[in-house]
Amino acid sequence: xxxxxxxxxxxxxxxxxxxxxxxxxxxxxxxxxxxxxxxxxxxxxxxxxxxxxxxxxxxxxxxxxxxxxxxxxxxxxxxxxxxxxxxxxxxxxxxxxxxxxxxxxxxxxxxxxxxxxxxxxxxxxxxxxxxxxxxxxxxxxxxxxxxxxxxxxxxxxxxxxxxxxxxxxxxxxxxxxxxxxxxxxxxxxxxxxxxxxxxxxxxxxxxxxxxxxxxxxxxxxxxxxxxxxxxxxxxxxxxxxxxxxxxxxxxxxxxxxxxxxxxxxxxxxxxxxxxxxxxxxxxxxxxxxxxxxxxxxxxxxxxxxxxxxxxxxxxxxxxxxxxxxxxxxxxxxxxxxxxxxxxxxxxxxxxxxxxxxxxxxxxxxxx
Length: 367
Known about the structure:
- This protein is an alpha/beta fold.
- The protein has helices at about 45-60, 80-90, 105-115, 140-160, 175-190, 210-220, 235-240, 270-280, 315-325, 350-355, and strands at about 35, 70, 95-100, 120-125, 135-140, 165-170, 195-200, 225-230, 245, 260-265, 265, 290, 300, 365.
- It has a 6-stranded parallel sheet with strand order 2-1-3-4-5-12, with helices on both faces.
- Helix 5 (about 175-190) links the parallel strand 6 (about 165-170) and strand 7.
- The two termini are about 25 Å apart.
């Protein structure tokens, strides 16, 4: 879904392009925001839940009424006709800006941006954009995955269990997923150097049954902590059912697996949505791609589950978070070693992180 192959032109350019919204910007009371989600806004955890929460935070912060948000949910991002019908309905509803939160909406968003140059189209993840009314946005979630890896590694070290498992939506062809696996493994290895991570790929962004089955296969193979890059809390439920532990994704999953969940890399999407919609209101919106991180408040980990984490986990994470934020700890730094033994002799650029990680690091392999 929100996955991307690469992000081009990351972060704001030094010289702001003249934004579409600069001409005839709608006032706060007149603004209409359109939203397309892949699953239901009634979800109580996971991907769409995190995005919807962010939109609600944005609306509250900016004082938008309920009728100023037009939401289309349960729009399968693999169904082009359904996607384009949803976008057309948002156009017809008079939306000034339309957000689409899943990767495979990208081509349809590009098409509609060309058809409707007076409307802003903002796409989560992906790599397409234009210089007028179409951008993409994502974030450095790998930073939060590294922190979650520390929690996982300390739990593994406590039990002297050196094998972790990871339920991955996609294989190494997808840099977002693969970079996330690697970052989690690096966090684990920072506190438990001999630890290894086994990866089970589902091949789908949203697959409740497949995600649960993948987690069970990893547990059966001896994995003690289960990480994930998939949309449901199924892997965490499986961890709890089997008496092992886990790190969720997108939102805090502790309430669903209180005896297993350690913490989760989470998105604070409200940080971006508030900034973007305020720019539309101000008339300053420009088609710049956004790639925020921990420093911008876009990503973090959920509150540690004190019932499950190993002693001293909080201190270790506080220290690592501070270093990531001030730039003294770079997750994908010089000296990384690929699983095939090749050493990387430079810090990875944003372009490499978002589009060039097609390999696992040392200690990571497929189940």
